[in-house]
Amino acid sequence: MIRLRLLAVAVALALATTSPGRAQLFQIKVVDSQTGRGVPLVELQPTGGPKLITDSNGIVALDDPALLNKNVPFGFQSYGYSQWGQTFQTTAGGSVQIALDRRNLAERLYRVTGPGIYADSIEAGIPAPIAHPLHNANVKGQDSVQTAVYKNQIYWFWGDTLYEVGFGNFRTSGARSPLPGQGGLDPSVGVDLNYFVNSSGSARQMMPLSDPGPVWIDGLFTVKDNDGVERMLTHYSRMNSDPAHAFEVLEHGLALYGDLTDSFSRHRIYAAGAPITPKGHAFRQTVDGQEYIYFAEDYPNVRVKADWNSVTDVSQWEAYTPLQANTRFNATAPPLETDAAGNIVFGWKKNADPLSADMVSKLVQQGFIERDDSPFRLEDHATGRPIQLHRASVHWNEYRQNYVMIGTESFGDSFLGEVWFSEAPTPEGPWADAIKVVTHDRGASGDYTFYNPTSHPFFDQEGGRFIYFEGTYANTFSGNNSPTPVYDYNQMMYRLDLATVPALTRLGGDFDDDGDVDGSDLLVWQQSLGTTVASGTGADADGNGWVESFDLAPWKRRFGRAVAGGSPPAAVPEPAAAMLATIAIIARCAIALRSRGLKSCHLSASTNWTLGLPLSVS
After folding, report:
1. Which processes are annotated in GO (biological process) (predicted)?
2. What's the pLDDT at 124?
3. In the listed set 504, 528, 562, which residue is the last one of a domain according to the structure?
């Protein structure tokens, strides 16, 4: 039910006595009815006056003489919130507070970049939580953030920056901020960005190449070099500056951050057609004792061992793909890898094109696979409608005991403005059910885009129950010809309470579906190893319809856990050394099954007792 509550209307005489300027305005505050927090980006349309927009405190400082000291009807609307209308007396020096009901699962918190983040609050005499509430580094707008925790600080980089004065910087801008609890703000309050600036105080170029063309970065990550020193690297692309060829890549490669210059420089130049490069957003995962850095541009489909020699040698990078190693994707005749039974083999392979949302779509359209055969197959949890994922970011979440994804949809209710949450037991999936958490739908001419979303695991709170993500709020591609003043082409922060999101996966590793992960589940996996099953059933943890060694990863991670009342389970110790030894033996069985065509593996009695399994396993 759409509700709008008028909470308080009062003439604030104290304002008139403390500041003559403040006495000449009427303060309107719009809050979230669930949390009581101010809501940014609420549009107020007064009859007979211009549209007004709340700042990041949810404040509008009404100082238009034509609208003061009279009864004025106001209309309220905001993406993902209820719409309503109310008339109230706009007495100079007075104030009113309005509560809007939120339809989004995620709560809009504040604008991260751009001018006037707290402009109305400052005018009304309300303190702002950030150091630069009005202007910062001459930034008017910024596009598509990349973040990494490097040397105990958060580093922020943006693809393009528009200036308030002058044109802009198209060679990547950057800033730093302290971590929460180490001098940084609580992420529910804001982010204090300390920009890298040039001599004029404007956000400067972070990769100042002498060659022409904008420089964009993605796939930002950190790794220790061979001397044990932490280094920060990123994929870079130098683009064609001719507007007719705006998305043409002239050069790309791996760039290295220099601590002395606080800027990036070329480290490796990649061949134009290199199939596997760091793209999207990075996260880490340990597989059988080996740490990897994973990358998700849409789905997690690229990884590399987290060591200096591997990350700097592009031939060592791997793609998660159904293609054969050393091949390229051809939509009409894809070089798919299949097993002896004709099943498509999804796995990590070198020198091949990664599986992406676009590749899945083309394989399905051409009849090479059913969509349910793919481990990457996002769909609406409520309706089963397929979701064409555009961009996403992924990280491990302790509260859900799953990998969690925040992604935007192509061709949804708004184009690139619908944000979805999903989860999976492994980075490889299955990425299936998803729930919409943010909408920017308001009809064809009123939609907005919110693209390239980025989750921030360094902001997770209460054991991961609260997660934070941001994206670029822009009218680009939306069909909306009325950009929102100061908000357009800037970053918006959201918070999602995962306690409000129903479970989207069964407990990863619970192969017998009895509510816990124990030795019986290992037995199910071992007995069905090498067989084909209905996608996502039995011991098929990654949803590719085949029980293989990859499917054991969620069992190892969750051994000893149980589900109680639908709540995420508490953490338990890692499996003991004897357990890990047993897992290693079974993993070798998996290799034998696949490479030698064996039908079963038998564990010795000396192995079985460590897990409490029957002495005869076949």
Report:
1. polysaccharide catabolic process
2. 97
3. 504
In angstroms, rounded to a whole number, what is the distance separating the alpha carbons of residues 297 and 301? 8
Same domain for 46 and 14? yes
pLDDT tens sequence across 275-305: 999 999 999 999 989 999 999 999 999 999 9
Q: Which of 79, 25, 72, 18 is nearest to 47 (CA)?
A: 72
Residue 513 falls within a domain, yes or no?
no
H/E run at residue 521: helix 519-528
Average pLDDT, the chain: 87
| Domain-ending residue, one of 504, 536, 566 | 504
- Total tally of structural domains belonging to the chain: 3
Same domain, residue pair 26 and 61 = yes
Q: How far is CA 240 from CA 215, 248, 250, 477, 481, in A?
A: 9, 5, 6, 20, 26
Q: Looking at the structure, tell me whether residues 500 and 391 fall in a common domain.
A: yes
The answer to whether the CB of 314 falls within 8 A of the CB of 274 is yes
For 12-57, write each residue's pLDDT tens digit.
Answer: 323 333 344 567 999 999 999 999 999 999 999 999 899 999 999 9
Q: Is residue 208 part of a domain?
A: no
The edge-to-edge listing of strands for the beta sheet with 107-111 is 107-111, 490-497, 466-474, 449-455
Residue 525 and residue 415 share a domain: no
pLDDT band with cut points at 50, 70 and 90 for residue 441:
very high
Q: Give me the domain span that covers residue 575.
A: 519-608
This model's pTM is above 0.70: yes
Q: Per-residue pLDDT for 392 more than 50?
A: yes
Task: Give the DSSP per-residue string, 393-426.
Answer: EEEEETTTTEEEEEEEETTSSSTTT-EEEEEESB
| pLDDT mean over 340-353 | 95
N-term to C-term CA, the chain: 58
By C-alpha distance, which of 464, 390, 366 is closest to 423?
A: 464
Residue 273 lies in a domain: no
Residues 30 and 117 reside in one and the same domain: yes
Helix (DSSP H) and strand (DSSP E) numbers for the chain: 8, 31
Q: Are residues 421 and 532 in the same domain?
A: no
Q: How many residues does the chain have?
A: 618
- Do residues 358 and 327 make contact, with C-beta atoms less than 8 angstroms apart? no
